[in-house]
Amino acid sequence: MTKVILFVQVSLDGFFEGPKKEIDWNMVDDELHAHILEELKPMGAFLSGRVTYELMAGFWPTADADPGSTPFVKEFARIWRDMPKVVYSKTLTSAGWNTTIARDVVRGEVEELKLRARGDLVVGGGDLGAAFMGQDLIDEYRIYVHPIQIGEGKRLFPPSKEKVLLRLAETRTFGNGVVLLRYERLRPRGES
């Protein structure tokens, strides 16, 4: 069954971005790049918020045309262009590059998207992740913990009174000290 996967990089102290939205503390090297490419290639769609989408659309459509592009950049540019995308935005009026605009995270629409997708759906970013978590739509968490404390910023997990039961499905330590924690959402029988 198709899953909704939250795919996110976080600092050891739980932030997915700094106070000015910076992510320059991410320690992505060749080993982690190769892993990320392998994880994202088979996905069915990328789901993002407007800010993330606009950042991605401002770079990836032509990133592989630059003769100085790294092999990772060239390969991810192709993946990003071809991948179906949904951008969640109340203000965006148009989007290119195989992208559909959705105004709100609606459970029924996400379930329908899961039925149509050719692979798992990747939610990128903490803000959109929080919206999906708020409706209990995350089936799997792939959290890449970077060995750095940034002290302040935006936390991955918003405060919640709900308990969410998870099962550790995988851990992996990369040479640069980044650790992948992959958790699957445990649900009562009969609940999807």
Structural commentary:
The protein is an alpha/beta fold and 192 residues long. Helices cover 26% and strands 27% of the residues. The chain is built from 5 helices and 10 strands. α1 (30-40) packs parallel to α3.
Explain briefly what this protein structure is.
This protein has 192 residues and is of the alpha/beta class. It is built from five helices and ten strands, in the order ββαβααββαβαββββ. It has helices at 30-40, 50-57, 71-82, 107-116, 126-134; strands at 4-11, 15-17, 45-49, 85-88, 99-102, 121-124, 140-146, 154-155, 166-173, 179-185.
Report helical residue fraction: 25-40%
Number of strands: 10
- Placed side by side, the strands forming the largest sheet appear as 5-4-3-6-1-7-10-9
Which descriptor suits the 3D outline?
Answer: globular
Order of helices and strands: EEHEHHEEHEHEEEE
Proportion of residues in extended strands: 25-35%
The end-to-end span amounts to 9 Å
Which structural class fits the helix and strand makeup?
A: alpha/beta
Low-confidence stretches: none
Rg of Cα set: 16 Å
The whole-number mean of residue pLDDT values reads 92
Tally of individual helices: 5
Largest sheet: 8 strands, mixed
Summary keywords:
globular; 192 residues; alpha/beta; 8-stranded mixed sheet; two-stranded antiparallel sheet
Task: List strands and helices in order, with pairings.
Layout: E1 4-11, E2 15-17, H1 30-40, E3 45-49, H2 50-57, H3 71-82, E4 85-88, E5 99-102, H4 107-116, E6 121-124, H5 126-134, E7 140-146, E8 154-155, E9 166-173, E10 179-185
Parallel strand pairs: 1-6, 1-7, 3-4, 3-6, 4-5
Antiparallel strand pairs: 2-8, 7-10, 9-10
Helix pairs in contact: 1-3
